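CORE FACILITY INTAKE
Project code: CF-77B
Contact: R.S. (postdoc)
Sample description: multi-component assembly, three entities in total
Requested service: structural model of the whole complex
Turnaround: standard
Below are the sequence entries exactly as provided by the requester. Do not edit them.
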Amino acid sequence: MRFGVVIFPGTWSDCDFHYVIGEVLRQPVKYVWHRDTDLGDLDCLILPGGFSYGDYLRAGAIAGRSPVVEALPDFVARGGHVLGSCNGFQILCEAGMLPGALMRNECLQYRCQSTHLFVENADTPFTRGLRPGQVLKMPISHGEGKYYADAETLRTLKARNRIVFRYCTEAGDVTKDANPNGSIENIAGIVNDAGTVLGLMPHPERAAESAMGGTDGLLLFHSLIGSLVEDGSVLKG
Amino acid sequence: MTAADPKVTLDLALAHGLTAEEYDRIIRILGREPTYTELGLFSALWSEHCAYKHSKVFLRLLPTKAPHVLQGPGENAGIVDLGDGWALVLKMESHNHPSFIEPFQGAATGVGGILRDIFTMGARPIATLDSLRFGDPEDAKTRYLIGGVVSGISWYNNCFGVPNVGGEVAFAPEYQRNPLVNVMCVGLVQTDRIFRARAEGVGNPVFYVGAKTGRDGIHGATMASAVFEEGAEERRPTVQVGDPFTEKLLLEACLEAMATGAVVGIQDMGAAGLACCSSEMPARAGTGMEVELSRVPRRETGMTPYEIMLSESQERMLLVVARGREEEVKKVFAKWDLDAVEIGRVTGDGILRVSMDGQVVAEVPVRALTEEAPVYEKPTARPGWLDALQAFDPLTLPEPPDYEAAFLRLLASPTIASKQWVYRQYDQQVGTNTLVLPGSDAGVLRIKGTPKAIVVTTDGNARYVFLDPYQGGALAVAEAARNLACSGARPLAVTDCLNFGSPERPEILWQFAEAIRGLADACRQLEIPVVSGNVSFYNETEGQAILPTPVIGMAGLLEDAGWRTTQWFKEAGDRIALIGPDAVSLGGSEYLATSGRQLAGRPAPVDLRLERDVQAACRAAIEAGLVSSAHDAAEGGLAVALAEACISGPEAVGAEIEVESLGRADLTLFGEGPSRILVSVPPRAQRHFESLMGECQVPWRFIGTVGGGRLTLKVGGSVVVSLSLDQIAHAWRTGFERHVA
Amino acid sequence: MRARVFVRLKRGILDPQGAAVKRALEGLGYREVQELRVGKVLELELEGTDPGQAHGRLEEMCRRLLANPVTEEFTVEIVEDGARQRLA
């Protein structure tokens, strides 16, 4: 399948995603400039981490109004998949592609650390290779990752099983201590109604090689590639 | 010659920090009185910060050459060859004064400056490290400074997108009103893509790129060369404000412009801004330069030529472009939404000619501003108080009544305790190269596409330098190299940041000269060239100088990234060995400091030949796969090194130790000395390890075994310390944080 | 024409920054501070002279970019020749 990695001014996880997809997973991948709107040849678009536009105003706010992001609804409508990690998740929320918002960490400090994620929904294209309740290890690196949604949005997310990951302990307990940023109900990642747009604060691309401390991040890519090959969306490779 | 310019007089020159002799010299060079703009140029370029006028004669002692050195001192940064077509660019710089005045922006712009030094050479920055010194940790002002400095570094690093992989934070009362913020950066460049800060090619256009110019930081270079006085906090307006987002764009645009082949030379507009670039770049190439200031992008109105030349607005570069290829460069910068404006050209007459709206406002030979800047050999004098301090014998003090309490106090000392509070605020992994995260002896970064890895560290124990500047200088180099050896790496190069008081005081200059002599001897013995660095003098407030603090940044190479070794114990049953001599001292030790004792005595001297052999033995054991951990026994002595090996890893594990007494248990456990490395050896490798140590002909002995839930230390047959892992972990994990949270 | 836009967190949304500043003020002895919320002020210099029209445009800017409707509320203020005209 064909991946695109978006570069906004200030993006910095672009090379890391490109490396994992191209060198570790050996899948075709190219960079997509934020002014590009022609996404015709892609199956999955990655919105990587970074400080797009310096995160000035609000994290992801300015990038959330850029041409490539405005082309996303059409891309998704015709079967495209989108994975937004870290700043990419912030951008998806700012653009209204996912509900809620990411606010300043409750501790008011940037946090770069390893976290554990409880797999809540194993029925999305990104998580189909996982078990519900499985615990993944993935690092975070952000200053504004506290997920917030109002009560009604939260009800909808739960009713439609759209919460994908929650921060948990190594043993899989979703506790206050395991929550690194004060996210509501420990939410670390959510999907759109169709399950084709995933936003998460952790960095799967930093957990894709054992030399980097773990490979749980690869499971998301394997699921996605597997799902799309299986349902005939794309040809293998 | 602008109507509003003040009249240039000797008094005005003195107010600019020039001496009367220097002012006479300027008049002789020009054959006339300087214009106001010219006075500004001379005062900035002849400042200590730019001209190294008090330090140059001493710095000549440092070894700077080796076959793998591609660029030594004198450029934006040093470069060493890594093989396989790759080179490493490294540099360290201080931002002490700005960080005291405004900790957040001061530290942030310090990071910004060092990053630019790296990417002007054509390299992509791959890691930063920060070496920080603060005053009394109990003081509210210290807490404010730490908070500001750490969040400033965090903000700039993280937004720019470079991992921070190591560093140090130490405390001493002498830094109370003069904290130190030293930042080191390393970058990777292909050996055939290196760029230099040279204005080659008469007729080539000169481009200004990056952020617009404002009035910020005017006099930054002279401020960094002046002693702090009461009221320094009122100087806020001169502090520059950083913009890491623009810097990130500048990085990408510069590397992309360089890849076109249209860039001839490039320099960061750092200290002394355009004044510095427009004189140093032609001076290095033996050319001259013309600049027209009305073309400089500005964000404030009514700026004078003086202000435009001396502004230290951040995130700006000066580029020399191959004539005829201007459009290629403009296109790249336009893509990244950055200004790129042609403001002048390279000339052949060796003159810097500055004009404003066509009218010449300064005309100075570039060599007069740079190579011919005054150099002084000021008097040095051994301080009279040193003999008494050195004569103090710490063993005249009583032994601690409670060894376990003393040990826990030592582990909880903010200088020794875990710095997780600091580094969890820094991105440590962006770039996905970081193989060893902060918290071990050194940071390790892989070089993608090769089997190799880079190992980086910063070190500098100022107490040792204060008590014995020559030994202290040598010890700093030895310890940095030892940290690399513990990770398995061979040292490649040093970048140094030399933080001292006023060089106009003979005792301070003596400390400086002696420390350099120690640095130079250690670098020569250990065969590590110094390729870049920075001198920061005048670190004093109202006559109170900081401890003399040379900070050593060192980079090394692991031929095989798989050899990388961390400091923590891995497996119960592993034997623990101590490689190195028994020569330790309590003089200047952390133990003495935490017992509320005066800073006195002498540090244990370093035997450089033994140091080299111990490091070689450690590397050999690592390369042969015989050790599962290696840790330098430094501040806090053997006991602290053991505790760190037990609790700093992902899973805590205990140890039982038995050593001979070196006379007294406190000296044995807490005494500090060089050339000592703690390793753990799996039982299967024990025989092989023993014979390897024999071949290496270094002192060594097994001192215990990994395992259990306690750390037990027996000295001369009796148990002196036996504490649970929870007890030592609690002291070590909370010791720093409780002061800042 | 000059305008000011104030953006602040909606009532009911936790403002840890405001809480931290309030604690700091208490530490300095200002115990009378009952509540403190941190917001943003954006100052804009606008072309045109019709405050009514400008106000409409500013509200649109807030809805589209300057404020996040999920977490933030805004007020718009037009300042003309030093005279303040509060419009929303």
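Facility notes:
- The interface with chain A takes residues 151, 154-155, 158-161, 243-246, 248-249, 336-337, 423-432, 434-435, 446, 448, 561 of chain B (CB under 8 Å).
- Chain B has a mean pLDDT of 94.
Invoice: internal transfer
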